[in-house]
Amino acid sequence: MEIKGNNIVITVSVDEFERYMKRKPKNQGEFDEWVSYVEEDLASDDVIWQNLFESASYTMRKGV
Fold first, then answer.
1. Residue 56, CB half-sphere, CA atoms under 13 Å: how many?
2. Half-sphere exposure at residue 8, Cβ-oriented, CA atoms within 13 angstroms
3. What pTM does this model have?
4. What is the enclosing helix (H) or strand (E) of 43?
5. Nearest alpha carbon to residue 31 among 41, 46, 21
6. Using the 8-state DSSP alphabet, how is residue 13 labeled?
7. Distance of alpha carbon 3 from alpha carbon 25, whole angstroms
């Protein structure tokens, strides 16, 4: 049996903008620009993917 991969969809909300920018976005354009930087970072080596996979593996092994 072949095991297929899965897609992960990440939704970025205004709450994240406010949490990290410490203020509300000025407008939709500013928010969209910020999200585009988040998207760029996800595609780069700036995200330590190993931490995500190790965390998931740890949680699965301990049966949570």
1. 5
2. 6
3. 0.72
4. helix 28-43
5. 21
6. -
7. 42
